[in-house]
Specification:
This protein folds into 3 domains: 1-57; 61-154, Beta-Lactamase (2-Layer Sandwich); 161-385, 3-Layer(aba) Sandwich (Rossmann fold). Helices cover 34% and strands 22% of the residues. It is built from 13 helices and 15 strands. The chain has helices spanning 7-20, 26-35, 42-56, 63-66, 100-113, 161-166, 172-183, 198-207, 249-257, 273-281, 300-308, 315-325, 376-385, and strands at residues 73-77, 82-85, 90-92, 124-128, 134-138, 148-152, 188-192, 215-219, 231-235, 263-269, 289-293, 328-334, 340-350, 356-364, 370-372. The chain is elongated, with a radius of gyration of 24 Å. It starts with 6 loop residues before the first helix and ends with a helix. The model has no long low-confidence stretch (mean pLDDT 85).
Length: 386
């Protein structure tokens, strides 16, 4: 656990500096300590200065965690519980906040940096920071045992398909298969649970798209960063404090269709916009794709149905659109150690009753070995068709 000066000492120095309008220099910290009758040894001065600096700059004491190689998530569950994920599941971090007020101040500062408000009247916020980090925060007492902060860290240089293969997220056969899916311009959905690597894989697949193709990305919060020469990104916007100015994802999907996309990409399908995405895939927009939360590839039709029904599509229409729009579902999971990997590739099959079921074409174990399923012939036909 990091050494943090007592909260009372920090508050006393912070109040004195604030009243004097002074900057956070070590010299002024030493003077403020002397004025408050506190010890002024070099170690104390430097510890107080660093603690105050981290309270007003960047992500504070979380900065070292965010800079660690391979970190994808940093989670704060109150002042005494900080966790991080480096690709192999969650692990406890050796850092703590002095109190919940410190967590609260950091959450409010991050929200303000993203142009959002966070206080007792609006205790929840989801915002993208300037470096692409996605920040979600909930203040106590709504959150227990204290204010909670969730930071999703983008890969600084982006992941390529080869990088994912090198990290064992893709086996050699898996790498070859997803490349063929991209090259054949199949319409696909990447499914999986939270933190399974859906956005990472989708971004890597987009990097493999023909450089001559125009990619139009639509996202609720901008996370996709494909290294591709022709990318236009649209980001949804929530309403301001007066309740005006909202631009929902569904509106942006419709706008994207007018922007001559070779590939329409919805970063995360989580609402009624799935109806517009399916419609777009059925009107000649080849290679459309997106990510969707689902426990398994088999559960994707039910998930799509649940999202599309509020958008005005009946059950039969949803399954009809899904059967003709989506060629492949790529499902990701985690092994027992928490490592992400490609679990299966499935194809949709419409049953005589009209409902769509997913049929496994190729499944992968956590060690990368592959086995063919009953849908492999259908998958091969779809790949050859293009």
């Amino acid at each position: 656990m990091s050494e943090v000066p007592p909260a009372g000492l920090l508050d006393a120095v912070r109040d004195r500096l604030a009243r004097g309008g002074d900057s956070f220099t070590p010299q002024r910290v030493a003077e403020a300590l002397r004025e408050s009758g506190r010890p002024v040894g070099d170690a104390t001065v430097l510890a107080v200065h660093e603690a105050l600096r981290s309270d007003v700059v960047g992500a504070g004491i979380l900065d070292p965690l965010l800079r660690m190689p391979g970190v994808t998530d940093v989670l704060v569950n109150g002042p005494e519980s900080v966790w991080l994920d480096r690709g192999a599941g969650l692990e406890r971090a050796e850092v703590q906040f002095p109190d919940d007020d410190s967590v609260r101040r950091l959450a409010q500062r991050l929200a303000s940096a993203g142009g959002r408000r966070l206080d007792d009247a609006t205790p929840c916020v989801d915002v993208r920071l300037a470096d692409g980090t996605r920040c979600h925060a909930v203040l106590s007492p709504v959150a227990r045992p204290g204010s909670a902060i969730s930071l999703r860290v983008p890969h600084r240089s982006g992941w390529s398909l080869e990088d994912l293969a090198g990290s064992s997220a893709l086996s050699g056969e898996g790498l070859a298969l997803v490349r063929r899916i991209v090259e054949a311009r199949l319409a696909f959905l990447v499914s999986g649970g939270t933190g399974s690597g859906k956005t990472t894989l989708l971004s890597a697949m987009l990097e493999a798209v023909d450089p001559a193709h125009r990619l139009v990305l639509v996202e609720d919060s901008s996370e996709l960063r494909p290294r591709h020469p022709h990318v236009v990104a649209l980001e949804a916007r929530t309403a301001n404090v007066e309740g005006a100015g909202e631009i929902p994802l569904r509106t942006l999907v419709r706008q994207a269709l007018r922007m001559r996309p070779d590939r329409l990409v919805v970063g995360e399908v989580r609402g009624a916009e799935v109806a517009d995405l399916l419609a777009a895939m059925n009107t000649g927009h080849e290679g459309g794709c997106g990510t969707i939360h689902a426990n398994s590839a088999e559960g994707v039709p039910a998930r799509v149905e649940a999202l599309a029904l509020p958008g005005g599509l009946g059950r039969e229409a949803v399954h009809s659109q899904l059967a003709s729009a989506v060629d492949v579902v790529i499902h990701l999971g985690r092994d027992r150690r928490g490592a992400r990997y490609l679990r299966e590739v499935s194809v949709p099959k419409r049953e005589p009753a009209g409902l769509v079921t997913m049929v496994t074409a190729v499944s992968f174990s956590s060690d990368g070995s592959a086995s063919e399923g009953p849908g492999v012939v259908d998958l091969a036909e779809r790949l050859e068709r293009w």
